[in-house]
């Protein structure tokens, strides 16, 4: 990989250097997704079943796993993997538990009390990808905060395996959290089913995939585009955030180990050909060593082809100093940022935007992907500029509540009346004056 010298690039070249490979969703993807969603809205479960047969080669009249299928899948997961699932879930619970909205109350003027009350989102749909690789860790990342929030109805959708079931480790991760409503549906058809509902049996029965209030989870271009489309519908569901192809930016100083830096970059490059990884450093020799390591280590990986495709769109950037490296990162707004420097805490103060930050040489991003406790469903494509990743609060809604005594209405009512009349909304004003003036019926 060629090293780009940041100071020698003009504004256009800098924009090009930080361009994402997968940012442009073609008209074709948009139209494909729109067709699938329209069919699911019109025909419900039948369209979901047809799309799954066409796109995933599996026909299941009822996509929900039976109790027998769930138990059989869990039994196939080795004890060591089940123990790792439990250990990861424990850390996720520990970190996420305090991350919800805090209810609070203020007596704004005597007798006028304003509150924030917190409720779980009632029906949530969790998408667990399984196209390029099944991601049981994503089931944990979404399921743990959903359960902690107390969401009463939780459905999981994940693409089918070749035998028509779901990946056993995905199923075992759901079961670890007590989730047993698992539908083997992937792609845009899964998002459509969760957005519009795809019930089985008689109308009014609760079988099948329920219409969800909010849809969560990462996925490929079709999944991400489908979430964007359903979120734009009037009365449509909410979505968590744009969580598309994985990205990582490493800031490395001259003391960083090029072997470890390259290993971190490759860990995200292996997600898909549209993943992107960048290494930014103030040391040209370090960047050359990282380039050589990327090439050497890529050849040893089972997903070498995917990794090399991702490296095509990846970058090595030489900056004047580490402050400039952070400025480059702030402009890119990476999903993951690793600070492989001698004083990472000091540099953290300058970091303005990133989905998740990893400090020092001994904190590989893989820890966060699986088991440190932070969430791996994170903003991509620059969305870190305005949002963080999934948290417990993502599964809650905050509701305001207020109550006024007659005296408090006497105190604040005239202000409301003045503002209502300034807006020309007399009915608003009279809702107050009728009370203040006593009997004006
Ligand atoms: N940002 C994050 O937080 C985060 C976390 C985990 C994974 N990811 C990303 O999620 C993505 C997972 O993608 P994936 O493909 O492996 O799995 P996926 O489950 O998202 O997609 C598979 C589904 O796509 C549908 N599909 C495939 N080709 C299609 C076509 N031509 N037309 C219509 N539908 C089609 C199929 O129905 C299939 O079931 C990766 O890019 C990974 O980097 C992101
Ligand atoms: N790195 C991905 C988020 O971009 C999450 C993941 C799941 N499994 C491995 N990694
Ligand atoms: Zn990963």
Automatic annotation (TrEMBL):
Xref: InterPro entries: Ald_DH/histidinol_DH, Histidinol_DH_monofunct, Hstdl_DH
PANTHER family given in the database record: HISTIDINE BIOSYNTHESIS TRIFUNCTIONAL PROTEIN, HISTIDINOL DEHYDROGENASE HDH
Keyword flag Transport: no
Similarity remark: Belongs to the histidinol dehydrogenase family.
Domain of life: Bacteria
Pathway of action: Amino-acid biosynthesis; L-histidine biosynthesis; L-histidine from 5-phospho-alpha-D-ribose 1-diphosphate: step 9/9
Family annotation (HAMAP family): HisD
Single Gene Ontology BP annotation: L-histidine biosynthetic process
EC identifiers of the protein: 1.1.1.23
GO cellular component, one term: cytosol
Keywords, alphabetical: Amino-acid biosynthesis, Histidine biosynthesis, Metal-binding, NAD, Oxidoreductase, Zinc
Protein's name in the database: Histidinol dehydrogenase
Binding site for Zn(2+): 268, 271, 369, 428
Pfam families: Histidinol_dh
Positions bound to substrate: 246, 268, 271, 336, 369, 423, 428
Cofactor note as given: Binds 1 zinc ion per subunit.
Cofactor(s) needed: Zn(2+)
Described purpose of this protein according to its UniProt entry: Catalyzes the sequential NAD-dependent oxidations of L-histidinol to L-histidinaldehyde and then to L-histidine.
Reactions this protein catalyses: L-histidinol + 2 NAD(+) + H2O = L-histidine + 2 NADH + 3 H(+)
GO molecular function, one term: NAD binding
Location of the active site: 335-336
Annotated residues for binding of NAD(+): 127, 189, 220
